[in-house]
From TrEMBL:
Residues 2-165 form the Lipid/polyisoprenoid-binding YceI-like domain. It holds the Pfam family YceI. SUPFAM superfamilies: YceI-like. SMART domains: YceI. It comes from the Bacteria. It comes from Autumnicola patrickiae. This is YceI family protein. PANTHER family: PROTEIN YCEI.
Length: 166
């Protein structure tokens, strides 16, 4: 049985850090579901709409500039890669509604394995996921690939707070 998410109520809150501070925002889901057996998740698939990426910690011209930059080829290239996808391959029940989740995350047609813990309830699920953007060819401002960036260096890891509603 598929347990579909309510895309209008579900989202991803992202946070990226650099030496001189951080930025945060949201990404919407295009679709997503868990496969369920005996009321337990066993797998699933979630597609994020990368064209929906928003910046929430800035306003006006600065907000628009950063959103445009995140959408261009320096970061996520949303014209060419409008979606990112997580295919959940394995879910292991732990305790207190917590599950260990493993799967394959695809961003910019690069796929890498990912693991995280997720709280799953009757009508919602929450997870904090850390992603190394350099594994997905998102290298702009990365100290791993460019030197002499100083306080403009952007950390490779970014955080995603995933909020799903069923």
């Amino acid at each position: 049985m598929k347990k579909e998410i309510k895309t209008q109520e579900s989202n991803v809150i992202w946070k990226g850090k650099k030496l001189a501070g951080s930025h945060s925002g949201t990404i919407n889901f295009k679709e997503g579901y868990f496969n369920m057996e005996n009321n337990e998740p066993t797998g699933g698939e979630f597609i994020m709409d990368m064209t929906s990426i928003k910046v929430t910690d800035l306003s006006g011209k600065n907000k628009q500039q950063l959103e445009d930059h995140l959408k261009n080829e320096d970061f996520f290239g949303v014209d060419k890669y409008p979606t990112a996808k997580l295919v959940v391959r394995n879910v292991v029940k732990q305790e207190n509604g917590t599950y260990g989740v493993s799967g394959d995350l695809s961003i910019k047609e690069k796929t890498n394995p990912i693991t995280f813990e997720q709280q799953i309830n009757e009508d919602s699920a929450l997870a904090k996921v850390v992603i190394d953007r350099s594994k997905f060819d998102v290298r702009y401002g990365s100290g791993s690939f460019f030197s002499n960036l100083g306080d403009n260096t952007i950390h490779d890891n970014f955080e995603l707070d995933v909020n799903l509603k069923f």
